[in-house]
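[job 4471] stage=fold_predict status=RUNNING
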Amino acid sequence: MAELRAARPGEAEALTGLVMRSKAHWGYGAEFLAACAPQLRIEAGDVVRRRIVVAGPGSRSGGGPAAVLGLASLDGEPPLGRLGLLFVEPAAIGGGVGRLLYRDVVRRAAELGFRRLLIDADPHARGFYRAMGAVDEGPDPGPGPDALGALVPFEVAPAPLADWARAWTGGAAAVHVGNVAEYNAQFADASLDREQTAAHHYACLAAFYSPRPAALVLPRQVPQGWISLLGRQLDWPAGVEVYDGLAERDPELSDAVRARPALAARLAGTGTVTGALAGAPLVPWGLTAPFARLTRRPWRPEELRYESKSAAHGLFGRILAEGGHPAITLPAQWRAPTRRAAVRLLTSRTGAGESTVLKSEHGVGGSGTTVVTPERIRAAGGARAVVRALPRGPLLVEEYVRGPADPDEPRDLTYDGFVDARGRVHEVGGAVMDVADGGYRGATVGPGVVPGWAQEPLLAFGGAVGRELSDAGYRGWFDVDFVADGAGRLAPTETNLRLTGPSVAFVVAARLDELRGAGHFVRIADRVELGARLPEAAFDDLCERLVRRCAGIGAVFLPAIPTGAFEPAPWMGALVASAGRELLDAAERLVRAEALAVGAMFEQAGGAQPAGPEAAFRAGAGSGFTSKALSGGREA
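[job 4471] inference complete, writing structure tokens
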């Protein structure tokens, strides 16, 4: 692995030689190179003035002290700068040195206060800069003799890590605990299956609980290739530890960790801990009694009372009664103590031509939520038949909020924030959710995704909810979900006192802004159908191919949930990111099409599909995993 250091004035001549060799690598003739030489020459005084950094072999690679694999300069003064030089020794091209240097320039530029960074790229490097996130600022000169020497202008907006993201974990790398099933199980919601299969898959989102993980703690075993790919894409620190397969079918992941004393001591700091995990904060999906036992913190179940949909509705009503939120409207809600009462309420509303939302007290991702129209009631043979088909347990009957008439206008919005240990509320932002029939399918975050009319009331009301949660003693991530009513108002529908899919998208956007420049749009899609069940190695190949294809158009692909790929009906969760909305849509279409087409490609290659999900998964097991002494850990 290459390491970076400041260049030394005495290296100026050798660095000039590297620059000229790198330029010549692309087949330019001697006459052209001679014409370029004055602009590319590095003088001793340039080394400090141009802030030149070099990449050399790592301390364990055996390279000599003077060996240099590449260099980059950061020219100019804030707020406008230029990436003046970025050249890699020909033998090292394609090995990640250019990516390392580019990210270092963007990071240093943000720290020094640069807000625009201009790049005049060699035409042969156009694909590299596009893949790094730089934005094309001019026409493509194209191939051919007329384009010789015609540089391609790019621009990037360096940005430090967002203030809220730094406050979330205090700027430190964190231990991410994927206790999704454990969180759900404490509410004993009848709309969730006992095995919590979906929750164990969703726990893979632990990879994105904060911008920089120190360790991932996961209930199910995950592919090693997935971990390596994420580490490369998100520039994770070396040595991210992965502890997986700890609770394949048991919902209580935290207790599974506690049952391994050495692992618990390493993760939770309950013993003598040194190294990367010393003092690392633990970030769970949500607060639970087992997690409190693991971290030896007080357990206050009343902190989670507003996870209840009826309690949240009451909280919304109290906030609105105080005034100050004219663009917020609260849908009416009735608690049905019995199924017979729910049938009566539903029948009455249907008779008046009204649609209704039936909710359980808890439930995630739309589980336990059903939208019922008069047409649906008639098709089912009456309200009794509809209610009978729902999971057992108390029901909430809620007024249905009709959305905008324009199908292109977003209907489902969410506010994300968190309450820190001192009770301060931090605003993360607003997102647009993809919801169908009450079921969550994904979300998009980024500049301007929330309509202008909704931005201010959404943030103001979300902040008010956060302050109430803080006063009630809650500490952690939360969101407030809204429905736009089509008349310029927002209707809050629930709070979630935990991480969610949109929160993961916010975290990824913050990390990509830090690595690639400000302004990323990020979309999380919970379910991308796969055309076949693949061995682990073939799934890794698919993901690597999607990374390359998305990078080719300037987008980012991250497989968010890999374990669904080994189910009988295979699928994966996915994150895509880009610097523009149209490009984001194009990246999602590319990923969905390629994922579906993989079945045909696999059959053409003559591969037989494994007999079951376990066979599919284990076909690639043992391919490079580094076992650790602590209960199956491995490092990315």
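[job 4471] summary: The two ends are 13 Å apart (CA to CA).
[job 4471] exit 0
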